[in-house]
Design a protein that fits this description.
Structural class: alpha+beta
Strand content: 35-45%
Organism: Streptomyces gilvifuscus
Protein name: UPF0145 protein PO587_31020
CATH class: Alpha Beta
Mean pLDDT: 81
CATH topology: Translation Initiation Factor IF3
CATH architecture: 2-Layer Sandwich
InterPro entries: UPF0145_dom_sf, UPF0145_YbjQ-like
Largest sheet: 4 strands, mixed
Distance between the termini: 13 Å
Shape: elongated
Order of helices and strands: EEHHEE
Oligomer: single chain
Number of domains: 1
Number of helices: 2
Low-confidence stretches: 1-10
Family: Belongs to the UPF0145 family.
Radius of gyration: 18 Å
Length: 121
């Protein structure tokens, strides 16, 4: 299945569809390829830690940490999609993120789901 299998409109369509649901309306699962994941661990920048400490005293969003977490999640998702692509999947079902503290020095982000081959019904 190529990218032309999904959606409409003018936006480019992904070659690997990633959804949080157990199924995709109008499609059936032809083959389950198994669990795939993308993992990354990011350490915190000392400057952002100091800034976050100061900001936490007065309240408000920790923009530097938010930006780092978004970048980290995106990288984990890119790795998940690449693993699914290599295994021959055109979709990942039941997609989730897991975020944990990594030995007190950083943040571990794991994107995971089930790689499948979908076909239109």
């Amino acid at each position: 299945m190529g990218i032309d299998e999904y959606g409409g409109g003018q936006e480019p369509r992904p070659d690997v569809l990633v959804v949080t649901t157990n199924d995709v309306p109008g499609h059936r699962v032809v083959e389950v390829l198994g669990e795939v994941f993308g993992l990354t661990v990011r350490s915190r920048h000392v400057g952002s830690q100091i800034g976050a400490g100061l900001k936490s005293m007065v309240g408000g969003e920790l923009r530097g940490l938010t930006k780092t977490l978004v970048e980290t999640r995106n990288q984990a998702m890119e790795r998940l999609v690449e693993q699914a692509r290599v295994r021959g999947a055109n979709a990942v079902l039941m997609f989730r993120f897991d975020v944990t503290e990594a030995a007190g020095v950083g943040t571990e982000v794991c994107a995971y789901g089930t790689a499948v081959v979908l076909a239109r019904e």
